[in-house]
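The instructor's notes for this session suggest beginning with a concrete chain rather than abstract definitions. Hand out the sequence below and ask the class to guess, before any prediction is shown, which regions might be ordered.
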Amino acid sequence: MGPVGPHPAVADVRRAVREALADVQEGALVLAACSGGADSLALAAALGFAAPRMGLRAGLLTVDHQLQPGSADRARTVASLAPGLGLDPAEVLTVTVGAAGGPEAAARDARYAALAAAADRLAAAAVLLGHTRDDQAETVLLGLARGSGPRSLSGMAATAGRYRRPFLTIPRATTVAACQALGLAPWDDPHNEDPRYTRVRVRRRVLPVLEEELGPGVAEALARTAAMAREDADALDRWAESAYQDCALSDIGGSVTLAVPEVEKLPDAVRRRVLRRAAIEAGAPSGALSATHVLAADRLITRWRGQKAVDLPGGLSVIRRYDTLILAISPIP
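After discussion, reveal the predicted structure:
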């Protein structure tokens, strides 16, 4: 009898990491963001196994949010696992979480800022994140509840700049099984059971009800929907970017002027993307620019009755003058 291969769950997580890193240049450093939970611990272990076989260097980052007693000790414990997983360097990143946007958003912002700074300092080619198919399904449901359009429904990207998410097609149960097979003991963050957090309520209450009422496979179907929605949204974004270049008469000095005849002949989804692109180019903060703002600007094209300027975030105004749409910081000359 030949040698026995790895546990199927271990093989799955290793394969996912190899595929996610297939285009990374040999000799580059790749970092795993690891909280100590099953998802990120399986990710770190898979990276430690795959990286040397691909000619890559691999390290680990863990973030101490300072939100729980003993968090510093927990972070040091996670970092101490790195040598046994074949990961070096290993660093604890200590952050201070603010209050802007609520506790979940504030913690996320602090975490990503710390990861980005560490990746820059260490000249890492990529940072791996342990989001699974279940996380993707939760993200889609949250986007659906917000009514924020197809881009939100497309969920998390497998690759976004330096960040890569190898496990978006892998269920959370696989990462748990991989840790068990490897003899790793994940840490269960109490925040993952706290119903004050919206994502926890979706995970513990909403998805189980959907599975019970609609049958198994809801999470898989939502993740599949996210992948298709992302393809569509990406295609529309590329079309809108090309259309913006055709419609923009000027975009210099914090103002943008669009040719109305060119913009108004575009399909709704593309035209509104062009308007959003123009508003951001003119100085509107992207995080504050809502669908309601874009629709108000859109009415200057589709329902033109000589109305006054529309105000957008960041002190921006949009006004129509004859066959041009001008977006600029108020007052518009």
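Then share the key points. The chain is about 50% helix and 15% strand. The mean pLDDT is 91.
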